[in-house]
Design a protein that fits this description.
Layout: H1 13-29, H2 39-59, H3 70-81, H4 85-101, H5 108-119, H6 138-157, H7 163-187, H8 194-201, H9 203-220, H10 229-253, H11 264-279, H12 283-288, H13 291-318, H14 329-370
Helix pairs in contact: 1-2, 1-11, 1-13, 2-6, 2-9, 2-11, 3-6, 4-5, 4-13, 6-9, 7-8, 7-9, 9-11, 10-11, 13-14
Length: 371
């Protein structure tokens, strides 16, 4: 999701539309509506695969990455994350303040350690409960990691890579995902919650979706896509049906532990969906690609981080209001409050943040010109 940089060009519009849909899945999964509980997992899978896809699409054989080293790779990752880092820090402080001054039982030392780890984006490398103060900030930790690894992947691909190796890379990544889940299922009895961390939050476990996206883009680049448009439309419909079926299966299995249900189950539908919509010749992708979806895709990196803070604030406010029967509004209406007001507030805050960024950039450029 966060593979956005103002210096990158040739971004595929239909994938931006897909980013909009994936963001919608993540946001809806946090509203509290039961039937949307699992769709956020699919959305995150799309973000990771699509990030790898767009990175490779924009950098492979483009000469943009001139040197590869630990220092250069970290600087590359910092450059990718810097547009979101100030917002991350602001939201981290907000959630940290809620812990420090709220009713949480954690010690001040633990909270301060979490703040430190979140500040340098390494919080999910440790099996700490609630490591990410902003519940979605775990993605930034993983994203920073995959960004720092990408120059190595790109460098390797530019040295005699092939479609055969790319396909092997995709299949191998799927197998590794499956094996991680299988191994973790054996460890589950040794710690409550650690299984979810290993599969879902641990950066090394989520790296494979990014790698799938990189290899998928390699297969996509320079390939002729000469089928009739109606055939691509059929492929798009099939890919969407697979996505729906995947989410139905995942929802049905969410009440009992199935190790391949957290991440692995979404990879197949995501691979098909990203590739087919990247072609962008079907009627479905063209119909869904419009000003609204492209606008939401534009603000999606900020909305991804902000909506969790907005929803948390609405949760807190809802607990202070009761209806005429004395029942907490939270229990009956909070889900609808998040949908009707939370999403609108998130969009408004995204617009405000974008304006702040533009003002700071203008001020910075003016200061530079005056020197």
């Amino acid at each position: 999701m966060l593979a956005t940089n103002k210096n990158e060009r040739n971004i595929i519009k239909t994938l931006q539309m897909l980013r909009c849909i994936a963001l919608g899945g993540v946001v809806l999964s946090h509203t509290g509506f039961e039937h949307f509980r699992c769709i956020g997992h699919w959305g995150v899978s799309v973000f990771l695969v699509m990030s790898g896809f767009l990175f490779t699409y924009n950098y492979y054989q483009k000469g943009k990455i001139r040197s590869v080293s630990i220092k250069d790779n970290i600087l590359f990752a910092i450059n990718k994350i810097k547009v979101l880092y100030p917002l991350h820090i602001i939201l981290m402080i907000f959630f940290g303040a809620l812990l420090l001054f709220g009713d949480e039982t954690e010690s001040i030392l633990v909270i301060l350690v979490k703040i430190l780890l979140n500040s340098i984006l390494i919080q999910e490398w440790f099996p700490i409960a609630g490591a990410s103060l902003n519940i979605v900030a775990w993605y930034l930790c993983t994203y920073f990691f995959v960004c720092s690894i990408f120059p190595l992947i790109n460098n390797y691909m530019e040295k005699g890579y092939s479609k055969r190796k790319a396909l092997i890379g995709i299949m191998s990544s799927l197998i590794v995902q499956f094996l991680i889940g299988l191994l973790e299922s054996k460890l589950q009895p040794f710690g409550n919650g650690i299984w979810n961390w290993i599969i879902y939050y641990y950066p090394l476990s989520r790296f494979w979706e990014f790698l799938i996206g990189c290899n998928l883009a390699y297969c996509f680049i320079d390939k002729e896509h000469n089928l009739d448009d109606w055939k691509y439309t059929i492929l798009e419909i099939i890919s969407l049906i697979i996505v729906v079926l995947t989410n139905i299966i995942s929802y049905d299995l969410s009440y009992k532990y199935v190790f391949w249900n957290e991440v692995f189950i979404y990879s197949f539908s995501t691979i098909i969906l990203v590739y087919v919509f990247a072609i962008g010749k079907g009627r479905i992708s063209n119909l869904l690609t419009n000003k609204i979806t492209l606008y939401i895709a534009k603000i999606s990196p900020y909305a991804f981080l902000i909506h969790a803070g907005v929803f948390k604030l609405l949760d807190i406010l809802s607990f202070h209001f009761t209806n005429e029967n004395g029942e907490l509004i939270f229990l009956e209406y909070n889900k609808w409050i998040k949908v009707l007001f939370g999403i609108a507030i998130t969009i408004i805050l995204c617009e405000a943040w974008i304006k702040i960024i533009k003002c700071l950039e203008i001020k910075k450029s003016n200061n530079v010109s005056l020197r």
